[in-house]
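Running this now, will post back.
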Amino acid sequence: MAFFAAPGVFISAENPAVPLFSLGGLNSHMHGLSLALQFALCCVLVAVSTLSAQLAVLAWVRVFRKSPKLSRATLGEDELPHVLVQLPVRNEGLLAVRVTEAAAAMDWPKDRLTIQLLDDGDDDNHAALVRDALAVTPEGVKLDILRRGSRTGFKAGNLAFGLQHCDAPYVAIFDADFVPPPDFLRRTLPVLVADPGLAFVQARWGHANRNANWLTRVQGLLLDSHFAVEQEARFRAGLPISFNGTAGVWSRAAIEEGGGWTGDTLTEDLDLSMRCMMQGWRAAMMPELTVPGELPQTAAAWRAQQARWTKGHAQTARKLLPQVWTSEMPLWKKAAMTLQMCQFAFYMLAFSSAAISLTLMYMGVVYYSGVALLGLIVTALGLCSSIGYLYLGQRMLGLHREPRLYRALLLAVVFPSGLILANTRATFEAFFSTRMDFNRTTRVGEKHAGGWRGVPELIAGVLLPIFAFAESNWSAVFFFFAVSGLVSIGIMGASGTGDPVR
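Update: finished.
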């Protein structure tokens, strides 16, 4: 669920006719360092261009390739299978009650429907949750409220615990902030039953609070493109697809053959999906089926969520890529899975590009013309593919005539740039630390407990253009998106809110 905008290479405005180093006294060691840094910068830019090109290819597939026709089993009432609906929650309050009520209202025979409310929350909240959940559950609906008393494995451990208490062959999963429509099972189960090779069927996310502020507008736009362009294109092209953690229904056989839910990464959904794809399972998208959820409304909540997802993707890549490339899968599938799992790398690459460019700028180096040209090409490719990808997502959903779309498109490039520091740190933690903190996304009305108030982003956003302008007057243009994003996220973090929509 990633977004990419290529970082610019920060070209010196010095006269290109001067020697390679504009600072006197640089010896051959410094010359070698310059060459090494420029080579490293080229490698980073090639990697960024690959990620940007992936967006362009997926957009092309989405436009020009038809969606495969899904088979649907014709099932009589007596043939409808037993379905387990799992609702993993942790101190969710009224949201947990709301999703329980929605699950209990789904149109499915009561004798073949089991709902599990999997409470991983604090002891003090459990009794109230039991009371309120039972109060909204109609008579005859089987609701099991399970509490394991330990957070081992986080959400993955919670889901695996629930599976031990029910043997239903199909499992639907909803996070607390989603509200499944009554016909969800009627529309998804026939697809899963008709094709025994499908691991899961994924519905599209809706956004109940999309217009709360500019931050939620941007998130809605980014997620729309993820589902309507990226996921749909992968489905149309027959590429591996990742489960999105909620609003989907699984074949239990796929869960078990894939190795089950494991808590050794923070993105258990991506981890299990990729393991199932390696076993030959496939997945289906149902973009016409929308399940509304709620978006984080503050920069602190969004930043923490994105850092967790980035770290989880990196952990999954570290865990599974060696298995992918030593497997007997065809090369195209290995490459597709690698690109999908490595989307987290954009932020680390953007950070590396900026760090290398600033170092070369401080050294007074004039770039080789090939390096400068590559930087300009990669920047143009990144911006064009990102904006085109985002606009296409709105067009595919019929939202391209919405008011303020173009302002939202600009902010959808700016705001993710403000996550470079947090997501780069998350990436390094995934590879060089065993620390596993799973803090669920802060809900509307809750206060983020992490203590972050936007200070690192504000400092970086203020110092970056000062340094760039002092070194080279017009090179500061290339810092625009990074600086705008860092300052925007920093200000929202300091104020504790998103930018309100007026």
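The first strand starts at residue 83 and ends at 89. More later if anyone needs it.
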